[in-house]
C-alpha cells in the first residue's frame, strides 16, 4: 500500500491538498464555545405561592408533586425544599437519560396534577438545566436621573430584549430588576363614612367601569358590528370620573372619595449596578453558535443602544468569552513556544535541517485535517477539545520522529531512497497502529465515567482520537513522501544524520546500559521497589474536582436571617458597596426575589447576591477578609458566604449538596420534629463539628389566631374577616387595564402603618349594624418556626452537616443516637459521590489495562511480553504523582487527564522497543544460526536500545518542552492546564528512564526461562 502511494506523489499531494481545503471549510463552520454543550441531567420544578408558609407549600404542593414525579424514567434522586412563598423540587437523572423526553414527561405530569393543586397557585415552572444556560454576558441597563423607571422596564422588555433575540445564535434573553407601573386607589375613609359609603362601593364602581362585552355583536342593516362599552377606563383620570353609588340613589365622582394616581408597583426584588438601581439582561447562546463571533454582535448591538437611547446607561459585565479567549490564547502561546522549543530539540538531535522541516510541515497538516473529524463527529471548538488537540500533538510528534528515524536507519543500511521510505514505514506500521490503539484503550473507557467528568472526557477522547488517526495517515503517507522529495537530490552522507550532540548521548547511554545490565537482578529489584514508594505519594495528595484558578472577582451570598423587607435589604447592600467603594472595579447585586426565568434556587426577600470584581487577586483576598469581619460585626445574625465568582467551569462542577450529611426522619408522625423538642436532642449529638441543615434553620414569624367564639357572638362570618385581612395586608388587585400586550393593574393602596395600628383602625360590621375593630377578633403572637421544610423521595427529613475530619468513623454512634429517638437515620453527600467516582475510575482503568493486554498480546503473539508494557505503567504513574507532590498540586480532573496522556506516550515507547527487540532476535537468529539464545537476546536488547534511543529521547523532550510554557504562563487556560502539564512532565521523566532501562531488564527477566530451555 505504501509502495503504491509513494509511486504516485502528485495524486497523493492533490488528495492531501483537497483534504486541507475541506478541513479549512469545516473549521469555519465549527461552533466555538467555552464548554461542550453538556446535557446536565437535572430538572428543577419551581413553585411560587404568595403568602404561604413552608408547611403549607410542602403539604399542599410539593408533596403531591413528588408523589406524581417519583415514577419518572431514569430518576436517580429527588430533593425538595419549601420556604416562605416559594418551593423547589430538584430532579437528578442518570447520565444518558434523554433529557428532552424527561422534560416533556415532567411537564405532562405537572399538567395532570394542576387540578388538584390550590386554585390560587400559578402553574409550577419546569426548568431544564444545560451548560448553555450559563449566561455568556450580562448587560447592565441603568436609567439616568429623571428617567421613568417603568418606561425603561418597557424599553428593556419590548425593545432591547427583542433586538438581542433577533441576533443569529441567541437562544434566550433573560431580565431581572423589572418594575411595573400600577394605578393605586387610596380611599379616604373619613369622607366615605360621612357620605355613608364603604370601600366596597369604591371597588364596585371601578369593576363596573372597566367591564367589557366580549363576543357580543349588533346588526345594522347589512353590516354587523362588535359591541364595546363606552365606560371602559384607561387612565387615573378616567377612574376618578367614575360614579360611586351610595344610599338613596346618591352618586359622587370617585375622585372625591379616593386618591387615584400612577405609582411604581411594589417589588419583591432589585438589581443594583454599583449603588444605582437598574435592570440586567443576561444573554444565552445556542449550542451551535460561535461565542466569539456572537459576542462581537452583542457588543455592536449595545453600541447602537447607547446611541439610540441616551437616557439610559449601558455596561457589559461577566463576559464569559474572556475565559474562552484566555484558554485559546494560552493554548496558542503554548503551541507556539512549545513548537519552537521542540524544533530546537530536533535541530540539536538531527544532523541536518531537512528532518525538522518535514516534521514542521506535517504538524499543521495533521491539526487542520483533524477539524474535518470534528465536523463529522459533531464536536465544537472549546477549551476541552482544544486541550485534547494540544495533548495529541505530543503523540503526533512521536509518530513522526519514529517513522523518519526508521527511514533514515534503512538508508544507513544501504537501501535506495525509495526502498528506504517503503520499508521504513512498513517495518513500524503495525507497531504504530498498535500503540495508537493502546493509547485509545487507556483513554476512551474514561468516557464511561458517570457524571460531568465522563461527559467532558467525550470531547477530549474524540479530539485525541482524531489527531492520532490523522497522524497515522500523515506518518504513513505524507512523511515518506516529503522525505523522498527533500532528499531526492541529496547524496547519502553516512552518519551525518546524527548530530555530534546525539553521538555523545549515545556514548553516555551505552555506559549506563552496561552498568545496569552488569547488575541485572539488583537493578530490576530496585526499580520494582520504587513502584510502591512512588504510589504511596498519591495517598497524601489532596483531591478536588477542578484545579484552583486565580481569580480577581468574588461573590458575596447573604441571608440576613431577619424578617426584613426588600427595601431594607437593598439599603444594606448599598451600604456594603459604599463601604468598599474605590476598592473594586465593578459591582452588581441581585437583591431579594430574582425574576430570571432560569433561576433555579430558592427565592427569598431576605437574601442577596453581590458580585465584586477587584483590581487583582491580592486586593480581593484582603478586601473579602475585611468584608467578612464587617458583616460579622454589623450583622451577627446574617449567614454570609464569600467565594470566588463562579465561571462556566465552576457552575458545571458546582454541587449544592454538603460534603457529608446526616439525615433523619421521624418514623411516627412523618413531620419535622418541633424545635423545642429538637434543640436539647441536638446538644446530645455524639460529634463536635456539625452545623444545622436547611430543615433545622429557624426564622421569626407573626401568628394571627382568630377568635371564632367572638366572631359567632357578634354575627360576623369568618370569610368576611379573612377577605378583609387579605385586602389590608396582601397585594389586593381591584382590576386590570389591558392595552394589547400591556397590562396595568389597578390596586388598592394599603396602609403604611404597622400591623397593630391597622388592626385597631379597621372595622367589621356585625348583624346589628354595629362596627367592631379587627383586633377584637385576632390575637397576635411572635413565634419561631422552621425556615425550610426539606424532603426527598421517601418524605420529610431534617439534617446536619458534619464538618470534621473522617466523619464516616462516627456513623455507628450517630445511628445509635437516632435509634434512641425513633429516627430513621441515613448518610449522604459529596463524600459518597466522590468515593463512587473513584470506585468507577478504578474499575474503568482495570478494563483499560485488560484491553491494553489483549491488543498487545495480539501484536506480539505472546501472553508474556504484554506484561512488560503493563509493568511500566505504575512507574510512570508514580513519577507523575511525585511531580504533583513536589509542586504542591492536587489530584484533580486535569491532572488525571495528564496521567492518561502520559501513559499513552509511555506505552508507545515500550511497544516500539519490544517490537524492535523481537525483530532483531529473529534477524540475528537467521544470520547467526550457531549463536546461543542468550547471546542473541543480549545483542538484540543492546542494539534495540541504540536504535530506539533517539525516538524515545526526542519524543519525551519535545513533549515536555512543548508543554513547559504553560508552567510559566498565567490566566485561566494556564491554571487549568498546569496540573496536566506536571503529570505529563513527571511521568515522562521517569517513563524515559523506564523505556531505556526497565524494558530491557523486564524483557530479559521474562525471557530467561525460555532462553535456558533453548540452550
From TrEMBL:
A GO MF label: xenobiotic transmembrane transporter activity
Gene Ontology cellular-component annotations: plasma membrane
This protein's UniProt keywords: Membrane, Transmembrane, Transmembrane helix
InterPro entries: AcrB_DN_DC_subdom, Acrflvin-R
Bilayer-spanning residue ranges: 331-350, 357-377, 383-404, 436-458, 464-486, 522-541, 841-860, 867-887, 893-912, 952-974, 980-1006
Superkingdom classification of source: Bacteria
Pfam families: ACR_tran
Protein name: Cation/multidrug efflux pump
Annotated source species: Echinicola vietnamensis (strain DSM 17526 / LMG 23754 / KMM 6221)
Amino acid at each position: 500500500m505504501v509502495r503504491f502511494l509513494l509511486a504516485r506523489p502528485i495524486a497523493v499531494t492533490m488528495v492531501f491538498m483537497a483534504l486541507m481545503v475541506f478541513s479549512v471549510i469545516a473549521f469555519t463552520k465549527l461552533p466555538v464555545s467555552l464548554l461542550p454543550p453538556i446535557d446536565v441531567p437535572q430538572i428543577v420544578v419551581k413553585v411560587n405561592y404568595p403568602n404561604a408558609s413552608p408547611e403549607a407549600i410542602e403539604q399542599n404542593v410539593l408533596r403531591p408533586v413528588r408523589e406524581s414525579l417519583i415514577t419518572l424514567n431514569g430518576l436517580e434522586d429527588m430533593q425538595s425544599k419549601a420556604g416562605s412563598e416559594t418551593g423547589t423540587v430538584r430532579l437528578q437523572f442518570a447520565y444518558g437519560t434523554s433529557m428532552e423526553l424527561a422534560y416533556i414527561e415532567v411537564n405532562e405530569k405537572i399538567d395532570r396534577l394542576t387540578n388538584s393543586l390550590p386554585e390560587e397557585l400559578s402553574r409550577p415552572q419546569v426548568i431544564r438545566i444545560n451548560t448553555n444556560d450559563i449566561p455568556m454576558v450580562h448587560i447592565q441597563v441603568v436609567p439616568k436621573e429623571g428617567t421613568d423607571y417603568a418606561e425603561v422596564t418597557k424599553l428593556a422588555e419590548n425593545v432591547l430584549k427583542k433586538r438581542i433575540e433577533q441576533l443569529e445564535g441567541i437562544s434566550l434573553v433573560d431580565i431581572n430588576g423589572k418594575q411595573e407601573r400600577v394605578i393605586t386607589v387610596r380611599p379616604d375613609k373619613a369622607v366615605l363614612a360621612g357620605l355613608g359609603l364603604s370601600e366596597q362601593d369604591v371597588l364596585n364602581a371601578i369593576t363596573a367601569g372597566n367591564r367589557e362585552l366580549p363576543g357580543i355583536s349588533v346588526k345594522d342593516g347589512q353590516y354587523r358590528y362588535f359591541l364595546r362599552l363606552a365606560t371602559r377606563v384607561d387612565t387615573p383620570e378616567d377612574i376618578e370620573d367614575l360614579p360611586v353609588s351610595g344610599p338613596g340613589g346618591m352618586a359622587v365622582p370617585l375622585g372625591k372619595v379616593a386618591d387615584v394616581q400612577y405609582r411604581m408597583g411594589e417589588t419583591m426584588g432589585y438589581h443594583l449596578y454599583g449603588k444605582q438601581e437598574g435592570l440586567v439582561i443576561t444573554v444565552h447562546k445556542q449550542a451551535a453558535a460561535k461565542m466569539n463571533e456572537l459576542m462581537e454582535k452583542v457588543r455592536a448591538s449595545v453600541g447602537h443602544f447607547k446611541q439610540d437611547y441616551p437616557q439610559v446607561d449601558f455596561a457589559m459585565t461577566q463576559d464569559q468569552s474572556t475565559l474562552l479567549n484566555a484558554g485559546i490564547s494560552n493554548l496558542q502561546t503554548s503551541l507556539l513556544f512549545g513548537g519552537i522549543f521542540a524544533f530546537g530539540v530536533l535541530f540539536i538531535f538531527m544532523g541536518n535541517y531537512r528532518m525538522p522541516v518535514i516534521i514542521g510541515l506535517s504538524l499543521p497538516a495533521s491539526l487542520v485535517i483533524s477539524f474535518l473529524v470534528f465536523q463529522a463527529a459533531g464536536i465544537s471548538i472549546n477549551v476541552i477539545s482544544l486541550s485534547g488537540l494540544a495533548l495529541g500533538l505530543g503523540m503526533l510528534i512521536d509518530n513522526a520522529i519514529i517513522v523518519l528515524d526508521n527511514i533514515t536507519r534503512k538508508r544507513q543500511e544501504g537501501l535506495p531512497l525509495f526502498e528506504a521510505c517503503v520499508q521504513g514505514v512498513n517495518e513500524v506500521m503495525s507497531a504504530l497502529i498498535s500503540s495508537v490503539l493502546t493509547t485509545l484503550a487507556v483513554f476512551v473507557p474514561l468516557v464511561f465515567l458517570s457524571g460531568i467528568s465522563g461527559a467532558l472526557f467525550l470531547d477530549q477522547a474524540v479530539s485525541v482520537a482524531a489527531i492520532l488517526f490523522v497522524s497515522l495517515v500523515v506518518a504513513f503517507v505524507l512523511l515518506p513522501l516529503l522525505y523522498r522529495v527533500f532528499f531526492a537530490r541529496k547524496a547519502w552522507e553516512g552518519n551525518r544524520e546524527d548530530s555530534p550532540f546525539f553521538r555523545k548521548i549515545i556514548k553516555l547511554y551505552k555506559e549506563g546500559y552496561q552498568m545496569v545490565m552488569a547488575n541485572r537482578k539488583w537493578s530490576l529489584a530496585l526499580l520494582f521497589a520504587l513502584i510502591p514508594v512512588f504510589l504511596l505519594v498519591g495517598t497524601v495528595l489532596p483531591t478536588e474536582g477542578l484545579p484552583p484558578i486565580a481569580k480577581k472577582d468574588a461573590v458575596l451570598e447573604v441571608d440576613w436571617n431577619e424578617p426584613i423587607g426588600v427595601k431594607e435589604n437593598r439599603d444594606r447592600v448599598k451600604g456594603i458597596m459604599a463601604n468598599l467603594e474605590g476598592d473594586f472595579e465593578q459591582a452588581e447585586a441581585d437583591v431579594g426575589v430574582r425574576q430570571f426565568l432560569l433561576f433555579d434556587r430558592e427565592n427569598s426577600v431576605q437574601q442577596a447576591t453581590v458580585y465584586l470584581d477587584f483590581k487583582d487577586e491580592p486586593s480581593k483576598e484582603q478586601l473579602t477578609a475585611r468584608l467578612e469581619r464587617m458583616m460579622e460585626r454589623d450583622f451577627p445574625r446574617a449567614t454570609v458566604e464569600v467565594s470566588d465568582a463562579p465561571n462556566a467551569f465552576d457552575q458545571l462542577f458546582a454541587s449544592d449538596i454538603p460534603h457529608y450529611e446526616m439525615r433523619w426522619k421521624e418514623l411516627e408522625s412523618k413531620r419535622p420534629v418541633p424545635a423545642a423538642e429538637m434543640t436539647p436532642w441536638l446538644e446530645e449529638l455524639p460529634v463536635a463539628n456539625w452545623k444545622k441543615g436547611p430543615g433545622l434553620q429557624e426564622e421569626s414569624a407573626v401568628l394571627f389566631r382568630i377568635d371564632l367564639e367572638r366572631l359567632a357572638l357578634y354575627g360576623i362570618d369568618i370569610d368576611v374577616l379573612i377577605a378583609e385581612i387579605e385586602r389590608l395586608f396582601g397585594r389586593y388587585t381591584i382590576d386590570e387595564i389591558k392595552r394589547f400586550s400591556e397590562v396595568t393593574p389597578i390596586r388598592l393602596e394599603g396602609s403604611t402603618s404597622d400591623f397593630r395600628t391597622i388592626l385597631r383602625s379597621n372595622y367589621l360590621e356585625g348583624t346589628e349594624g354595629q362596627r367592631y375593630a379587627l383586633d377584637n377578633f385576632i390575637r397576635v403572637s411572635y413565634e419561631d418556626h422552621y425556615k425550610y421544610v426539606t424532603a426527598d423521595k421517601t418524605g420529610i427529613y431534617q439534617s446536619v452537616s458534619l464538618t470534621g475530619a473522617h466523619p464516616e468513623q462516627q456513623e455507628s454512634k450517630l445511628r445509635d443516637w437516632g435509634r434512641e429517638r425513633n429516627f430513621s437515620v441515613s448518610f449522604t453527600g459529596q463524600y459518597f459521590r466522590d468515593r463512587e467516582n473513584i470506585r468507577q475510575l478504578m474499575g474503568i482503568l482495570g478494563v483499560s489495562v485488560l484491553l491494553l493486554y489483549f491488543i498487545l498480546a495480539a501484536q506480539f503473539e505472546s501472553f508474556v511480553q504484554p506484561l512488560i508494557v503493563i509493568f511500566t505503567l505504575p512507574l510512570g504513574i508514580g513519577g507523575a504523582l511525585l511531580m504533583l507532590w513536589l509542586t504542591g498540586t492536587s489530584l484533580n480532573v486535569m491532572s488525571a487527564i495528564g496521567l492518561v496522556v502520559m501513559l499513552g506516550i509511555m506505552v508507545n515507547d515500550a511497544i516500539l522497543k519490544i517490537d524492535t527487540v523481537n525483530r532483531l532476535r529473529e534477524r540475528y537468529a537467521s544470520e547467526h544460526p550457531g549463536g546461543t539464545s542468550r547471546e542473541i537476546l543480549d545483542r538484540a536488547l543492546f542494539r534495540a536500545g541504540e536504535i530506539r534511543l533517539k525516538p524515545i529521547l526526542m519524543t519525551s523532550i519535545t513533549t515536555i518542552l512543548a508543554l513547559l510554557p504553560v508552567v510559566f504562563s498565567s490566566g485561566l487556560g494556564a491554571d487549568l492546564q498546569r496540573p496536566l502539564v506536571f503529570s505529563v512532565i513527571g511521568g515522562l521523566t521517569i517513563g524515559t528512564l523506564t523505556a531505556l532501562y526497565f524494558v530491557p531488564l523486564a524483557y530479559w527477566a521474562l525471557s530467561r526461562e525460555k532462553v535456558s530451555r533453548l540452550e
